[in-house]
Amino acid sequence: MSRFSDDQVDLSVLKNRAFNYRWAELEDGVIPLTAADSDFPVAQEIQDTLIDYIKDGYLSYTPKLGSKELRVAIQQHLAVKKNEKVSENNILPIDSAARGLFIIAESVLKPGDEAIVFNPVDFLFRHSMKRAGAKLIEYPVKLLDESMDLSDLESYITPKTKMIGLCNPHNPLGLLYSKENLQLLLNLAEKHNLYIMNDEIWSDIIFPEKEFISILAVDPDKNDRVLSVYGFSKAFSIAGLRVGCVYCDNQELFDKMVEVSCVMSTAGGVSSLSQVAATACLTKAGPWLESFMEHLSTMRDYACARINKMPNINCRTPEATFLIYADIRKFAISSEEFCDFMKERVKLALVPGGAYFFGSESEGFIRICFSTSKAILEEGLNRLESGITMLLEEKVK
Questions:
Q1: What percent helix, strand, coil does the chain show, rounded to 5?
Q2: What pLDDT is stored for residue 145 in this prediction?
Q3: Helix (H) or strand (E) run with residue 75 in it
Q4: What is the pLDDT of residue 285?
Q5: CA dihedral in degrees (199, 286, 288, 98; nearest 10)?
Q6: CB of 359 within 8 A of CB of 327?
Q7: Rounded to the nearest 5 degrees, what angle is found at the Cα of 282, between the Cα atoms of 56 and 200?
Q8: Exposed, middle or buried: residue 24 (CB in 10 Å: 0-12, 13-18, 19+)?
Q9: pLDDT tens digit sequence for 320-355
Q10: CB-side exposure of 15: number of CA atoms within 13 Å?
Q11: CA–CA separation, 293 and 205 (whole Å)
Q12: Which domains does the chain have, with CATH numbers?
């Protein structure tokens, strides 16, 4: 039996536990191809590790800077899978990768600084930078063939610029940054005395025809201006355990992140169960992740083929992530109106583009999550196709 066959998705559980725009928040009968979370249970190896840990009956305090086992597991994973040379002593486990973006922003930015945020990109970049007091300078993403054109990025930098946000792989575009673009970012950071917020939470969800290149592997002599965040929720489906990490080569910046995260006392840190599960992700769940990627590859190809045959909608095949960024501009309605129509008329929930989630440049697009079973994805796309037919018929009237 496949770990990712249709019968492995337990809707009775998901409808009680899967929040954040998913099954537990929507009325019965609605299919959510929404938040970037999986419909499948976590690897059995992770479940067994948690059960074994609890059997002893002790849930004591953990080391303030995270367990050595977890930090070593992260260090080895970064080195082997991403060619990132980071000391285990410069890795800080934290309560989610999302929290990591806020820690990085607060460690570097202060009121009056400017921070460049790509548009579109995940909303947490804007929120974290703004929360730290920075003025946001939005850089509109331009695509050249299958890569980003960053040739005019330097023109957005001013004497007040302190940080550039890097989402690699990119959410929602599903693109990987080229080595040339990563080198450009490093050169700009050095030239203009600024820092790079490097989000690599999607770096384990890379499809077989592409290779992930980390900015930390491009020009290691310039890594002291890069502050990175990594997490376990996308590749290993443990979002509810709230665990991730931040890391950097620059000792002064690392110490600042430790200070900001409050882990030098019992006021901060990551739960023992979360650290145990995260360690199991990297040391035991590799075969599960390989099978997961095989399933995602099949779902990606199926979904893109279906969508690109539908009228007035099209999408690129993502190089990474389990998200499809689809262009609906031919309908001449807003992304939110399109998603509201689908939810009301065919009971399909999608994530709209627009200023709230990804930035103004994503208006006219929607995001579709395909990390689910073939049966659910097929039914969801059937509903999308039916909804599009209804929408076109109503526009004709």
A1: 45, 15, 35
A2: 78
A3: helix 68-82
A4: 98
A5: -20
A6: no
A7: 130
A8: middle
A9: 999 999 999 999 999 999 999 999 999 999 999 999
A10: 9
A11: 7
A12: 6-42+286-391 (3.90.1150.10), 51-283 (3.40.640.10)
| pLDDT less than 50: residues of the chain | none
At residue 144, the pLDDT reads 85
- Cα distance from N-terminal residue to C-terminal residue, the chain: 49
**Alpha helices (H) along 168-250:** 179-192, 233-236
User: Cα–Cα distances in Å, from 214 out to 169, 179, 264?
Assistant: 9, 8, 29
Residue 268's alpha-carbon distances to 62, 252, 385, in angstroms, are: 11, 20, 47
State the pLDDT at residue 247: 98
Q: Which two tokens stand for residue 195?
A: 């820092």
In terms of phi and psi (left: phi > 0; alpha: psi -120 to 50; beta: otherwise), the region of 240 is alpha
pTM over 0.85: yes
Q: What is the pLDDT of residue 269?
A: 82
Answer for the pair 351, 366: CB distance below 8 angstroms, yes or no. Answer: yes
